[in-house]
């Protein structure tokens, strides 16, 4: 059975994590962030080191281990009763991040909507990422070159994923608004998708 899924989509700093954390507290919605899955790996896990190497340069971790990490995690959550594929909706944040990942996930996900948190002003994203580097001690947000690299990877590899899902599924929301206003717009889309 394919998993009913809504993708949280947008560039680094667009606010996917902020919205995902709030929305994940709604009953029947589960927020899963690929970045969090990587950051929660134990130090003994070799993928943890791979993650640090790639993320530290602002690059994507290779596709196969990324998809496997996510797959093992969701299987676990289904097994433990945290996610019920019959009744629940997955809010997937940070995945898929390129066309190859989107294809690898087609067999598993029933994507019913894509929430595209869109910001046309790059400077705002850079400011947010720099503020987060201090607050959350994030290596990949710490220097300007890495931030620029991450934004370039987003433009070149991640943004084209929107075409994979098509205009009918994509809902674009202005991510330069305050978190409350972004949430209001996101909830309007989610409410429509429920009917
Ligand atoms: P942000 O929310 O700023 O986009 P994330 O926490 O989602 O950052 O991701 C941090 C880093 O984790 C990425 O820069 C990348 O190195 C790695 N990563 C996360 N998701 C994926 C993915 N789907 N494929 C490859 N690498 C990923």
TrEMBL record:
UniProt-listed SUPFAM superfamilies: P-loop containing nucleoside triphosphate hydrolases
GO molecular function term, any single one: ATP binding
Record Gene3D superfamilies: P-loop containing nucleotide triphosphate hydrolases
Pfam families in alphabetical order: ADK
Keyword Transport carried by entry: no
Example GO BP: nucleobase-containing compound metabolic process
Keyword Transferase among record annotations: yes
InterPro entries: Adenylat/UMP-CMP_kin, P-loop_NTPase
Protein name: Adenylate kinase active site lid domain-containing protein
Annotated organism of origin: marine metagenome
């Amino acid at each position: 059975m394919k998993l009913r899924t809504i993708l949280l989509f947008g560039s680094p700093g667009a606010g996917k994590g902020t919205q995902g954390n709030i929305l994940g507290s709604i009953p029947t919605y589960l927020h899963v962030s690929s970045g969090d899955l990587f950051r929660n790996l134990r130090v003994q896990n070799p993928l943890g080191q791979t993650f640090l190497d790639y993320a530290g340069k602002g690059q994507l971790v290779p596709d196969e281990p990324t998809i496997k990490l996510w797959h093992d995690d969701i299987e676990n959550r289904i097994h433990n009763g945290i996610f019920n594929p019959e009744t629940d909706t997955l809010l997937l944040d940070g995945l898929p991040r390129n066309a190859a990942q989107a294809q690898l996930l087609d067999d598993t996900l029933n994507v019913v909507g894509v929430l595209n948190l869109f910001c046309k002003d790059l400077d705002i994203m850079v400011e947010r990422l720099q503020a987060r580097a201090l607050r959350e001690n994030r290596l990949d947000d710490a220097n300007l070159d890495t931030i620029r690299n991450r934004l370039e990877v987003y433009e070149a590899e991640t943004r084209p994923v929107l075409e994979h899902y098509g205009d009918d599924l994509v809902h674009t929301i202005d991510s330069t608004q305050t978190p409350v206003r972004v949430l209001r717009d996101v909830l309007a889309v989610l409410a429509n998708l429920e009917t």
